[in-house]
Amino acid sequence: KQGGTRKAMAIITCRVQYLEDSDPFVCTNFPEPRRPPPYDLDENIALIEQIAGVHKLLEAPLKLEECALQMAPNGNYLDLDLSLGEQKDDVEQLYDDVGRGKKPILILRTQLSVRVHSILEKLYNSHGPELRRSLFSLKQLFEDDKDLVPEFVNSEGLTCFIKVGTEADHNYQNYILRALSQIMLFVDGMNGVIDHNDTVQWLYTLSGSLSRLVVKTALKLLIVFVEYTELNSPLLIQAVNTLSVSTGVKPWSYLTEILEEKNGSDTELFILTMNLINKTLAALPDQDSFYDVTDCLEQQGMEHIMHKHMSSKVTEPDLKQQFTIYERALRHEDGEMDAAPHVRKERRKVTASEQEGRRIRRSSAQNLPDILSSSPTTSNTISLSASSSTSLSPSTSSPFSPSSSTLSPSTSSPFSPSSSTLSPSTSSPFSPSSSRSASPLTPTSSPSDSGSQRSSPLPPPEVANALKIKDLDFSDLMEEEDIDVLDVDVFDVGVGRPGGGGGGIPPPPPPIPGLASAPPPPPPPPGAPFMSIPPPPPPPPGGGLCSPPPPPPPGAPPSSSSSSSQTPDPAFAKKRKTVKLFWKELKQSDSPRKCKFGRGTVWASLDKVTVDTAKLEHLFESKAKELPKAEILVLDSKRSNSINIGMTVLPAVHVIKTAILNFDEFAINKEGIEKILTMTPSEEEKQKIQEAQLANPDIPLGSAEQFLLTLSSISGLSARLQLWAFKLNYETLEKEIAEPLFDLKLGMEQLAKNKTFKRILATLLAIGNFLNSTSAKGFELNYLEKVTEVKDTVHRQSLLHHTCNFLVDNYTDTSDVYSEIPSITRSARVEFEQLSDSLVQLERKCKTSWDNLKVMSKHETKALLKNRLTEFLKDCTERIIILKVVHRRIINRFHSFLLYLGQPSYSVRDTKVTHFCKIISEFSLEYRTTRERVLTQKHKRATHRERTKTRGKMITEVGLGCRSGGRPRSGVRG
Known about the structure:
Blueprint: H1 2-10, E1 11-18, E2 38-42, H2 51-58, E3 67-72, H3 92-99, E4 105-110, H4 112-125, H5 128-144, H6 148-154, H7 157-167, H8 170-185, H9 187-195, H10 197-206, H11 212-228, H12 232-247, H13 253-259, H14 267-282, H15 287-299, H16 302-311, H17 317-333, H18 368-373, H19 376-391, H20 460-466, E5 468-469, E6 472-473, H21 560-566, E7 594-595, E8 598-599, H22 613-619, H23 637-647, H24 653-662, H25 670-679, H26 683-695, H27 703-712, H28 717-753, H29 755-772, H30 799-810, H31 822-827, H32 832-859, H33 863-900, H34 905-908, H35 913-950, H36 960-965
Parallel strand pairs: 1-4
Antiparallel strand pairs: 1-2, 3-4, 5-6, 7-8
Domain FH2: 568-953
Pfam families: FH2, FH3_FHOD1-3, Formin_GBD_N
GO molecular function, one term: actin filament binding
């Protein structure tokens, strides 16, 4: 009877429908068909394997890979990666309906992520009326589908709002704000805004819009944001200060501009603005943050604004009440009056260093009516003095309020246009020292009592010292080099211009701005400023070297050098035609400019050199093309071409010979030695070339033949090349053997110490003993290859899956094994049998190198080279002996390790290292993959449970305790 009940419960009959929602902006579709057909679901098989049957039955016009199953009517989505049985706790309503004999309805529809992606794509790519319709529909979409809000927030939907809204006009911005207001009504949506400070920055930016409707909506949303939890006020301050740093706008200036009626008078705007300020201040936990905000407001004339509105007869009582709340908050914080309604009952915390020394930047000694009746001039003067002393006090600022918000009104803002021309070393908004600076023109403030004095600019040594990067000294780079010499027209403007035609004395060419050096000594008459050589006095104005009108092309004024290039010098008269040098002649005359390297150009400072023209004429005489000379070609074309091609990547043949004789590694690299080894001449080739050369002594050899003949002249060529190649390759060959051996040694240690691997073996042993009804002490590790193949008969999950589940549930400190045994994974890629052969080959090459050294020694006269090679081979021999010992001991330790793992002694010798490491590596990789899947499923379940707590919940339903102490978190954000 129990078996029949289990079989009946394994099949759950549901009614199924589909909803055509591939276009998320179409809200008029209903589930089809109206009479949903029944469909049997196996509660032990993953829904992803059964959804295709539902899709086929309904003939749904949806893409199968984009489908999801949603329960009706509560709207919960089923996890397709799990079976119904595995998510039974999350779908209790479905099982309750089945228990009462009902057939629950499942709706096949588009996945949330796909719909959100379609929404974002539509918003990014639409324009004009289509974009307006889409934005207008968003609010209704979020109202109708409460699951759409968290998915939209998690898919960078808020970023999309900002990008679209920044480029749109105020009408589109208003539609976006309507949709955002609906998002912020949900707990999940509000949490998304809290986590996305860019949205708060954008809302604050919109408070400076020219559209009153946009400003009102933005202010209302900011008020809702601040009211939601006390932790949001610092986030708003952070957004305001971040925006101030990036744009150069003074913090809170958008709000003060509203109160100053710069865009017209609107009482509702005034009330909303003051309400936002008061609620922000009321939620701040410390005095530093409070005074940072209020000081900034006072600097921008808050006292004058209050006086104007409070003294006006047309000001509404609600607005006066907001100003009163603000003033009482200031007085309460200064300790001058007790807490009143709408004001914090307790004063905020102060730092120990302040001893309650910080107060509001304007005097609070008077009562409220006196302050409101005081003149703006007097209050501003007091504010100036207070702000100066406050800005210099070592107060601890809030982490959410950059120090730039405390700038004194007596100082110029670091974001003013005038500061844009300063060099980066002068001021920096990110420097701690500039947080309370008195001026952007001075990096530090003078610690005087008045606070209005400005310090002098930084001395040059400090600037020079700043030009150091670690041990690299760039101190010689001076300020004048900030200006590119190419930006100053010294070539075309100040060089070679006529001297004014005999008028007044023309001014000398202007120096480069910022140049520290003085110009050259003034010449007696004009006309000489463009000459670079200090020779005899220049000619009178208008004559000499000045060009006649019309002037020559720019950059090429006539000079002695240019005229000499046009008329041949008698000293260069030639009887024969010579080879031409095809260089680019400098046409530009020398200028008197001075740089780090000297005055003028390098050519002006060169000494005159006298050359032997007769010899040059003989050597470089231009002759008619001669017929190609005959060459001795002995090698066949294939061999000759191969050598000629090889010579293109090698140095000259005489360099090769010297390098081989001296073992010069800088002249020829390892690849070059290997290439020369393939080109070494045989005795037969050497004999043929020599015979041909003797037969035709007047005919030169071909390039390939000459190359081989030169190589053959080197004594012990093959022995030298082979010894050299071994010398260059030894380190690599040794590394290819030693590193795998060390990996194997380290891998055995890692596996033996791995607690998770031992717990896996213990769990598998316990499960196997129960299934086999035995009490085995262990099993051969070869069985680890089959663990993934054994599956249960209910959920068809592998034995490894259940083992992993057990370990995750019972041992929270376990790991994925794979990441902890990297040496085993590397050892699995090495063929250790070939490693043994490589060790034998290395020993053989070393012995051959000793023989080659003996051959070379017969002809080698350089004792230093011979001794160096001998020492090298001795060292190699010792290292190879050590390598053989290491290899033998590592293999023996591996055999011992297998016995430790329970391997029978008769099979240990037959077990290959690579095969064993591959078994362990592949099993650990499978375990890691399975473990990640198990952890993902558990995380999804936990996320679903957390999501259920806030799913569809409005912020008005959140308890007061949650608002004051924190916020409900949805598990989807990470």
